[in-house]
Specification:
Blueprint: E1 5-10, E2 14-22, E3 25-33, H1 37-55, E4 60-65, E5 80-81, E6 92-93, H2 94-99, E7 106-110, H3 111-122, E8 131-136, E9 140-146, E10 149-150, H4 184-188, H5 190-197, H6 209-229, E11 234-237, H7 246-258, H8 265-268, E12 275-276, H9 284-297
Parallel strand pairs: 1-4, 4-7, 8-11, 11-12
Antiparallel strand pairs: 1-2, 2-3, 5-6, 8-9, 9-10
Helix pairs in contact: 3-9, 6-7
Bound molecules: adenosine-5'-diphosphate and zinc ion.
Length: 298
């Protein structure tokens, strides 16, 4: 498909907007911090208007956003960011604000469902139809494709908020999720690492016990996702996963937790190809948004 698409990766700390048709044809990209909805969405609108003046009309726009959000087209609050604790952003009609200016189809989904769709079209998940995309960053989130369709269900998955086995003697840290305390996000997102150890993840040495514990929690989570969804592939991105040494630790601990129960060569023999980083790298998010725009066009 060669029609020009606008993509918005709407993150809690920054927005990335781009236009193009895919990874080999990204015409222009802009990044700016997430402030108020009016200002931030306004900057995205302005970027697309400038791009349209240069490259011609956009055929569709895709938005891959932090949540929780409402991705159900039949719902009265479709296109809204809903209950987010992020100041100013609760109950914001994101799709409406874009559609007011641009009379084109708009795709709207979670950042992680978007990234999953991008990896499926152009990246690591091209050959599979049931897989998950996780991000371990400021928060923890997961998107899923099941039998070739992005999973929404009741609202959308909240894979960051599953509970873990918490050994309080080994790890007295209480967790920082405002809703659940020691859920996965509360224990294993970047800010939890920083709060528990008093140092940012980026500054921890490779031999720091933080990594063993981090891998333990991530492996517990993967155990649950593997048992619940039977994914053919697990993609792990986000700032924390840019520590390449985490991958072998997570793979090994996932195998240990599963304990040979899930009998498939992908897990027993080829786990290096089963738990992988995003192949679109740090463009997974914005390319995912473009993929959502293309999907809306169809
Ligand atoms: P966001 O979630 O806002 O999109 P990131 O995915 O970059 O952004 O996540 C930011 C979080 O990841 C911060 O808590 C940061 O400390 C942590 N982080 C970023 N880079 C690294 C790194 N190299 N090692 C460990 N943690 C990191
Ligand atoms: Zn939680």
């Amino acid at each position: 498909m060669t029609q020009l698409i606008g993509g918005i990766e709407a993150g809690g700390t920054k927005f990335v907007c781009a236009i193009g048709t895919g990874p080999d044809d990204l015409r222009d990209e802009i990044r700016f911090p997430t402030t108020t909805p009016a200002e931030t969405i306004g900057q995205a609108v302005q970027f697309f208007q400038e791009q349209e003046a240069k490259h011609g009309k956009l055929a569709a726009i895709g938005i891959a956003a932090f949540g929780p959000l409402d991705p159900e087209p039949a719902s009265p609050t479709y296109g809204y960011i809903t209950t987010t604790p992020k100041p100013g952003w609760a109950n914001v009609n994101f799709v409406g604000a874009i559609q007011q200016i641009f009379d084109v189809p708009v795709g709207f989904d979670t950042d992680v469902n978007g990234a999953a769709l991008g990896e499926w079209r152009w990246g690591a998940a091209r050959d599979v139809d049931t897989f998950i995309y996780l991000t371990i960053g400021t928060g923890v989130g997961g998107g899923a494709m099941v039998n070739g369709r992005l999973l929404h269900g009741l609202i959308h998955p909240e894979m960051g908020h599953i509970m873990l086995a918490h050994d309080w003697q080994k790890d007295p840290y209480a967790g920082r999720c405002p809703y659940h305390g020691d859920c996965l996000e509360g224990m294993a997102a970047g800010p939890a690492i920083e709060e528990r150890w008093g140092i940012k993840g980026q500054a921890l040495t490779l031999d720091h016990p933080a990594w063993e514990l981090e891998a333990e929690y991530l492996a517990q989570a993967l155990h649950s996702y593997i048992c619940a969804l039977s994914p053919q592939l697990i993609i792990m991105g986000g700032g924390v996963m840019t520590q390449p040494h985490l991958f072998p630790l997570v793979r090994q601990k996932t195998q240990q937790h599963l304990n040979g129960y899930v009998q498939h060569p992908a897990i027993l023999q080829q786990i290096d190809n089963y738990i992988v980083p995003p192949s679109l790298g740090n463009r997974a998010g914005v390319l995912g948004a473009i993929a959502l725009g293309q999907q809306a066009l169809r």
